[in-house]
Design goal:
- The protein is of the alpha+beta class and about 80 residues long.
- It has two helices and three strands, in the order αββαβ.
- The longest helix is centred in the C-terminal third of the chain and has 14 residues, at about 50-65.
- The protein is globular.
């Protein structure tokens, strides 16, 4: 898998309500690769964010389409 293509794909995914990428917003951090798995941390601005699953899927689905898996941790920005 082309590392740069994966990063480019991840960095192009935007928040649905804000025309800014999840990476630039600081929501998606600590991106790493291990074989066919992308590991990352979702850092939420507050607990119980209503569109959490939508944001996770917005990363997971394009990666799966590239033949990759997503493993992730979650934390809240104040932690």
């Amino acid at each position: 898998m082309d590392f740069f293509k994966v990063i480019q794909t991840i960095e192009s995914i935007q928040h649905p309500a804000i025309a800014t990428s999840l990476v630039n917003l600081g929501i998606l951090q600590d991106i790493d690769f291990e074989g066919d798995t992308v590991k990352a941390t979702f850092v939420w601005p507050f607990a119980n964010i209503p569109i959490k699953e939508q944001l996770i899927s917005s990363i997971k689905i394009p990666l799966e389409n590239m033949g990759l898996k997503l493993e992730y941790n979650e934390k809240v920005m104040s932690e």
